[in-house]
Amino acid sequence: MKVIIGADKDGAKAKDELVLELKEEGYEILDLSKEGQDFVDVAVAVAKQTLKETNNGEDKSETAPRGIVIDKWGTDAFMAANKLKHVICANVSDEHSARMTRRHNGALMITLGTAVVGSELLKSCAKAYLEAPFDGGRHMVRIDMVNKMA
Amino acid sequence: MKVIIGADKDGAKAKDELVLELKEEGYEILDLSKEGQDFVDVAVAVAKQTLKETNNGEDKSETAPRGIVIDKWGTDAFMAANKLKHVICANVSDEHSARMTRRHNGALMITLGTAVVGSELLKSCAKAYLEAPFDGGRHMVRIDMVNKMA
Amino acid sequence: MTKTVISIGCDHIVTDIKERVSEHLKEEGYEVIDNGTYDKLRTHYPIYGKKTAEKVVSGEAAFGVVLCGTGVGISSSAAKVPNARVALVRDVSEAEYARKTLNANVVAVGGHITGVDLIKAIVDKFITTDYEETPEHEALIKKINALEGPKPEQTGNEHFFDEFEKKWEEGYYHD
Amino acid sequence: MTKTVISIGCDHIVTDIKERVSEHLKEEGYEVIDNGTYDKLRTHYPIYGKKTAEKVVSGEAAFGVVLCGTGVGISSSAAKVPNARVALVRDVSEAEYARKTLNANVVAVGGHITGVDLIKAIVDKFITTDYEETPEHEALIKKINALEGPKPEQTGNEHFFDEFEKKWEEGYYHD
């Protein structure tokens, strides 16, 4: 599976550690982090690339690309990403939300904030998100509704 | 107020940052961290010193010394500290618990794990704990019970 | 004195939690507009996320509070409302940051992720923290708002989701 | 096949949450010993922390689960039971660590801090994670156990707290 990832300066160290682990586990990584980006830039870069590679989020298969943004607060990148049409983004700081947001919301991407989430919890949230399948079924009606709004 | 603090190697960086901020806010700091300590050593050192300076936890006044341990997981130092008689220790990763454990449990000390708690949340938990008063009253009966057990 | 108004909404999974938050807010002296859902009958979070956030951006309420199981579904719906700035959080410090720096106007929590006392502490901090207006913060907010696309016929349109509710009732969506 | 037995306990603040965790465990095929409290009448968490942990160290139950508002009161009580190794957590990864490395036998959560689905996820991971026995882990556990002082007349003594309950009823403790 391809993971599209990005971090601002506050998330850079945690992102590098996560990328190392994900590569070891066989994930393909596309790192969009660039010098001088703020959290909005990173959120938008990851969101747009993940939309592009999933046919606007329609591909929710087990191998579909997913996005991860790491910055200081998480909730700010979350705020920005969700403004974009077809983006369903979750700000995550626990493993259960990380898993359920893929299963029920088919979340295109997650955000993680290093101000709030410690180093090991951050990695275990990221993995819980990447490993979870999308349940589809009744959950699709809500996603169709959100996508009409966007 | 005097804060008795200790960290193992995984908590050292977060501890140093916290100590800086607490000193700026006027707290007196006693840092018991030493090279080569594991989490049990640190938990015991902070617990015993805080017991000593509070008459076995009996002094729960607003200015009474309190203990803080920072290690990787928090819950391990918590496990160790609570084995000691008269120690009521809380493993904390949210501000509300940090405040309420002083108010209701009169917690002698808290533990914080950097694997779980991010940098800003860690500081805000520590401050919430230090700023909270002990409510006394009905809560004392439970503390008396715990202290008989220990 | 006029009471500060809080707009609140949830899905059917966490109605009981929403009720406890609503009670708490009323006890604290706030006026609450409860946008539903009001029971545990299966329904769809975008309906309530949209309604709750629209009450905020219209000025009827000062702040919004939305809850579903993880908070993700209802917060991503609320975020699609023009001028809503939604913070999904599990901690007090995040809520405070989102108010101070981004003038967030809707806070979201996972009613099955975060316990009710921590939820109350988060909501209390959110609605009592002032936005700190600086050129930097204003620029960030402008940058976030500029990401919004056009939303034809969305705002205030109570029939916006009818087509999906019809398909739902016809059994189009099933596990 | 014998069912794995889980010992569970709570204070009056989170009885409803305890019930939901207990139901979940039974649905998953576990046998549950519920040590109370069983309603919302004001009582004292050490009674239930002690009872719940003692069922674990005696071998009647494989694991213990304790809850109060923040989890602190009941977990510090449970921790004073000889051979109880109690982990107070808000996240799955901590629970897993405590099992793997420290062979923790009681898990504690704050029923008003952590939401019910996350609590279930934490408990599930705790009771399904094996201890990894290594010389390092054994040495840590030995070091923790060695901190315990003598506990005369404590274990299994149902009248251990009577003196305080008497004082409580006499109005000695009041807000």
TrEMBL record, chains A, B:
Family indicated by similarity: Belongs to the LacAB/RpiB family.
Top-level taxon of origin: Bacteria
Keyword hit for Translocase: no
MF terms in GO: galactose-6-phosphate isomerase activity
Gene3D superfamilies recorded: Sugar-phosphate isomerase, RpiB/LacA/LacB (3.40.1400.10)
EC number annotated for this UniProt entry: 5.3.1.26
Protein name: Galactose-6-phosphate isomerase
Protein species of origin: Sporolactobacillus spathodeae
Pfam families xref list: LacAB_rpiB (PF02502)
Top-level taxonomy: Bacteria, Bacillati, Bacillota, Bacilli, Bacillales
Keyword line: Isomerase
Presence of keyword Aminoacyl-tRNA synthetase: no
UniProtKB/TrEMBL annotation, chains C, D:
Gene Ontology MF terms: galactose-6-phosphate isomerase activity
InterPro entries to which the protein is assigned, alphabetical: RpiB_LacA_LacB (IPR003500), RpiB_LacA_LacB_sf (IPR036569)
Pfam families: LacAB_rpiB (PF02502)
Keywords, alphabetical: Isomerase
Keyword Isomerase: yes
Class in the EC hierarchy, top level: isomerase
Tagged with keyword DNA repair: no
E.C. code: 5.3.1.26
Family recorded in the similarity comment: Belongs to the LacAB/RpiB family.
Protein name: Galactose-6-phosphate isomerase
Protein species of origin: Sporolactobacillus spathodeae
